[in-house]
Each structure stands twice: as structure tokens, then as C-alpha cells.
Amino acid sequence: MEIKIGMAKTAKYANEYCGDTCDLAERPHGGISAIIADGQGNGLAAHHTSSWVVTKATQLIGDGARDGAVARAVHDYLYAMKDRKVSCTLTVISADLESETVVISRNSNCPTIVVTPEYESVYDDEVAPIGVHRHMKPRMYEVPFTPGMLVVSYTDGIAHAGRKHTGHDADFEKIMEIIRKDTAEDVDYIARSIMEYALFLDKEKASDDMTVVVLGITEDSPGAKIEELKAVYPF
Amino acid sequence: MEIKIGMAKTAKYANEYCGDTCDLAERPHGGISAIIADGQGNGLAAHHTSSWVVTKATQLIGDGARDGAVARAVHDYLYAMKDRKVSCTLTVISADLESETVVISRNSNCPTIVVTPEYESVYDDEVAPIGVHRHMKPRMYEVPFTPGMLVVSYTDGIAHAGRKHTGHDADFEKIMEIIRKDTAEDVDYIARSIMEYALFLDKEKASDDMTVVVLGITEDSPGAKIEELKAVYPF
Question: B4 φ, ψ to 5°?
């Protein structure tokens, strides 16, 4: 089978720095993790916060730490370094080959959505961001690999898109429709489509930093097993 | 402008573990680095070696260390941890927004190629891999950003493809042709094409682990500045 990950990120309109950070980390026992974080506020300070959080998370994942420990350690780090004054959301979506499951660790005000050919789940239990509360635990979920599975999450720039113009949030059902009508082959297209929907609601001027992550599990591609990475980084 | 990176990697035929590792790291002062490493031997031991090397490099880059220091520190780490007994190649290609240059750090037996609309350079000076010699320095090169620029490197599974069947290495001129006939927009296509050429020479059964990295500098895309990441991870 194949794990496919697509991510898209954009900064609040007219801001040089994006307060969201996203990254990937290869897991030493096999598999890959996608990490997204939204630092408190926006601009350079938020950029540094979310960068630190994601860099620390990728370092721990690369060293083999389990996801629950990663979220706790990154929280403790931010809590100590910023003297409990700065919050940050953190969502880690891991396709773990040892357990053959997708492990989701959420400290975010945005949902994580799982869509497979058999079922749909929306994980949106209330949970605090990291960095500000003494006692912090991530919300953890685990779902077995299924071909055709899609796991989607995003930051609140997506969830609240359009609020400035219409007074209400982005239509969650519309986001679900975008996910449902595509396949796990098209993770990058789905990420891009959700972002384009949010930008459309914000009249092409993002009201906040926006990040989308889409992870898919697909059947094998024919031919040699080729791992691929692609990045586009505008400046 | 935009930085685009495409990477492709495959394991030696019938090997479960790939001894090459590749990864990306966002630079805290802006820009992005691509890292490739080829661990001594192949299979699980080589996989662990190159994973450690790349994980350590991405950690240091994420913490803001300059590339020359990264190569030295990663060498010292491998030299200490493996008691100077295990070698690994390391190539770091960084598009650095602070200096607006591409910085290349090579400890590899394979060349790094720069092709722009104005000139072509092949950096293939002799340099030792990391991990085994007390005094190690990376070969460093720095070239200013130019729209249309392509920077390409690979591991020796590509350079030596076909040797098993024909007794001689892959045709370097053929690799240059693949690079020349495409544009910096198509980094992933170029990476994939070079790998497919090498697999063709090896009769679709890779004689060694193979990795290709292609970095391109392009003009702006229209619309919002959207950063994108995509990964395909077969298992």
C-alpha cells in the first residue's frame, strides 16, 4: 500500500510571516507523520512559536518517540520556554507501519476528519492548545489502515474563513463534500481544494493563517516502490 | 519567486529497507533545505545510519545552524557514535532566503549539478564521506538565485546504474540531457525521470539504493502564496 500526504499553507493576507507551520517526519520504525501547528497571534512571533513546536515534534518523532509522549514533551517545552504565556495548537497525524494504524494526536480547536469507503468520523472533542495549562493531555485517536482512507485536518484560518464578510464560519458540510468527492490518490488536490474554498470565502485575502493536511492510504502503485517528496515554497 | 524541490528514492531490488534517506527542513530565517544521505552498505544497518545522519542534519538546520556547521557536527556525531567505523555520504542543498543563494554542502562521491539559463556547473571535486576520518570538511559551494535555476544531485545507485549488466556506469551526458530539456517548474518530473532512466539501466531491478534530489528556483505563481508539501510513501 502507499501512504500519501498533501499539505497546503498560506499566510494571512499582506503578512510576510505565517503563524502556522506544517512539516513531515519519517518514523524510524516505518511510516510517516504530518504535523501542523498554529501559534498564538500572527506574524513573526506566531511564526517562531509554531516553528519551534513543529521542529521539536519532528525531532522527537525522528528519534522514535511515541506520539502521546511527543505532544506532552512539546507542551512541556513550550510551557517552560515561554513561561506558560504562549499557546499553540498541535495536531499530529501519523501513519504508523508497526501498528498499521493512523494515530491522531489533537491539541486543536479544529476537527480531524476520517473518511473511508465504510465510515466517516469527525473527531472534534474539546481539548486545550499546548503551552498554557499545567496539566495538558492530547486527545488521541487510532484507526486501522484501510485502502481508500482519508484523514484531514486544518487550522482555524480554514474553519473561520468567511467570518469577516458573512459573520459565520466556513460551511463544514462543504468541506466534507470536497473530501468525499475525491479519492485517497488525490491528497494534494484535496488540500488545495479546501484551501481554495476558504480563500474564496475570504474573497482571496486570507483573514488568518491557513493550513490544511490530508493523509491518504491507497493500494500499491504498479512498478518499483518509489518514495517521493515534493515541496513548493513561495517567497 | 518560488523554491521547488522534488525527491525520489527507491531501495535496492528485493530489499525491504533502503540505505538512503532523504528529507526536507525549513530554515528558521527563511528558505528550505534538501538533505540526502547514503549509509555504508545496504539493508537495515545502512538505513539506520543514513536516517540518523539526516535526522541530525534536519534538527540542526531547524535550530538555525549554518550548513557548514551542520555537516561538521553530523560528521562528529557519526564518528563518535559508530567509533569511526561507519561511513555515510551527506549532501545538503539549501535555498537560503537570507543570502538569496543556493548553498551546497557535499560529502559525497556523486556530483551536484547546477543548470541555469546562463551557465552549467558540475561540482564533483573529490571529498570523503562523513564518519570515518578525524579531519573532515564538507565541500561548500554557493550560487546566487536565478529564475530557471536547477540544482540536481543523487546517490551512487543512480551514478552506477547499469554497471552490473554493461560493466560501465550510467551515462552522465544522458542525465544532463534530462535536466536540460525540462524547466525548474518540473522538479518532481525531473527527479522521477532520472530515477526511471537508472531503473531502466538496471533492468527495473535496482542494483543499489537510489535517491535523486532536484531543487528549482522559479518565477512567482499567480494568486495567493501557497506553500505546498507532498509525500508518497510506499510500504
Answer: -125, 135
Residue pair B180/B152 in contact by the 8 Å Cβ criterion: no
List, in order, residues 6 or more apart from A96 with CB less than 8 Å away. Answer: A27, A29, A30, A31, A102, A103
Instruction: Give the pLDDT score at B172.
Output: 98
User: For chains A and B, what is the number of CB pairs under 8 angstroms?
Assistant: 189
Domain ranges of chain B: 2-218
Report ipTM for this prediction. 0.94
CATH classification code of B2-218: 3.60.40.10
**Chain A partners within 8 Å of B199 (Cβ):** 224
Q: Which three cell numbers stand for residue B122?
A: 558540475
Closest CA of chain B from A127, distance in Å = 27
Interface probe with A: pick from B5, B77, B220, B232, most Cβ of A within 10 Å: B232
Percent over 90 (pLDDT), chain A: 96
Confidence (pTM): 0.95
pLDDT tens sequence across A39-59: 999 899 999 999 999 999 999
Query: What chain A residue is nearest to B35 in terms of C-alpha separation?
Result: A229
Put simply, the answer to whether A226 touches B5 (Cβ < 8 Å) is no
